[in-house]
Predict the 3D structure of the following.
Amino acid sequence: MSSRLSGRAFSVLLLLLASGTAGLARPFRFDDLARVQRVGGFSLSPDGQWIAYGVGTPDTAANRTPSAIWLASTGGGAPRRLTSGDKRDSDPAFSPDGKTIAFLSHREGGSQVWLIRLSGGEPQKATSFPTEVNSFRWAPDGRSLVVASDVFPECQDVSCLDKKVKAREGAAIKARVAERLLFRHWDAWQEGLRTHLWRLPVEPGGPAASDLTPGDRDAPAFAVGGGEDYEISPDGKDLVYASNPDKILASSTNADLWIVPYAGGNKAADLTAGNPAFDGSPRFSPDGKWIAYRAQRRPGFESDRFTLLLLDRASGRSRELTPRFDDWVEEIAWAPDSRSIYFVSTIRAHGTIFRIGLDGADPTPLWTGGAPAHLQPSRDGRRLFFHAGFATHPPEIYAIDTAGGKNANALTHTNDAFLSEGAFGMNASERWVAASDGAKLHGWLVLPPGFDASRRYPAVLLIHGGPQGVWGDGWSTRWNPQVFAGYGYVVYAANPRGSTSFGRKFLDEITGDWGGKVYDDLMRQTDDLASLPYVDRTKIGAAGASYGGWMVNWLLGHTDRFAAFVSHDGIFDTKSMAFETEELWFPKAEFGGWPWTSDVYEKWNPSRFVDKFHTPTLVVTSEKDFRVPFGQGLQLFTALQLKNVPSKLLTFPDEGHWVLKPGNSRLWHATVMDWLHRYLGGAEGDPAALESAYSIAR
């Protein structure tokens, strides 16, 4: 891989390389995806000379992904592995003096913070908290950590927590009782726990352990995949965090910023009480004068545009920095001089890093391409480090000059040897077609390795979830278009109405109109796919998850143009789903009220059209999916079976909305590819993987 390329140039180069070696390329299939090592979060040392980062290695046989901490020089050279990788070591963070790396580890069971010295030696355990540590931050003086953990809110000290944990572990009765909503969330029951921030000493003699966010609410607030909704001020005096003060959390997307002395003892002050929608992702400026944060304006609408705001700590007043910016602000990081802020957004399906000053001028793009994240500027302000993956290449860690975003280079090359050895010929190009009202519709086209334009190939239309989501220029370990192409399909990943990164109007047009304009958009994009001379229009399938699964269920009752469907965690009955799901703000916002007050539920209810179901359909659902609960998939499969439509059900008792464990993913891919092979004619799924399910009813 070239060491000095812009993001867009990097993607184009990979596409050209793939095209030039098409005849030599071999398919990139699940076994190859499982061999790709997963570069995770990283930390830049205070002197800018080192990066510490996590690397996960999927183990499909054991159905887990152990990970290790690695160290690499920002000046180049071979990296060094710091931990064994037998368990799960992740999320490294350099100490303020740069001599120690703290990281999360499961080496003794539950997640705790461990330390390793750069001077050498074995890792040492830093925390033995009764409940698991979800995330942590160093205090500026290096003497303590602030950790996020799910605790019993009635406990004020560690001994109380320890007693409660042991009592629960030894309980003979496992029944649950609830007297309020949001008693389960995403993929877990609440279990009477709340996420709190605790201050813990790093070594004996440090500050005593203390709950800094006591009370019967999550502080910081829940974020899918973990969030960074808290930070300690540069002088170590204050802690800022996001928490939802509303009484009924199941129907609220609110969060406010709160500030409390890091020493503890004082009541937290609400900094953003005037905004009834989300305020979060707080970041202190290096000089401590400002707090930058992200905010939304429409209460109850989780997909509202995220804007960038600046709070003056002296006056307590906030102002928006991005009033004219039409897309989401996704992640923010301060420049070291406190005069500008870097942020990530996705523009027309391409990740972009912007810089914006505090003077109100429009943001300036620095880098375009891939899916950048984890922004970390060097202390001298000359370089910006980030994590990025592309549609044609798994994530690595990169750096660019902050002066114009030039001289980009990859600092890690974790998968280069494997990918070069395989000669997979991965590729991705873009398609644009006009909607019925003239709107421009975007999609990604991925061709099978060894592509021959004189042949006719089966094809798959991929429909993203959300519904406010996007198929972007990023790498995926779940719904990876390269894998579908590796099984012999022309893949069209569509971005119809409701897709993010194409402006607010385009995004908002799906709300309340799930099967309207977006259905027409997808039909036009399917027309575009079918028009390609190398596509067999009699062998086109469609597959989607979440909202994409709902759309597959809708297509079942509205068109016979597809030869096969895959419906993963899709809503089948909009009314019953509204009473089953946990985040009640979602159906209320999307369907304009509650099931007894809005006719929109019935208008876009796939279960109304069961009499028109004919297309062979694979149904996937998981028992820990509380977002689109298990019953939705069971209802769909039952309806298909009663209608004698060829159908198959795949369920996972240990997965939620996403299939994450590598062994489960192996079975998922084998089942999906076997189904598509059966009706579209691509390559067969792995027969050994198909038999790995512990319960098969035929």
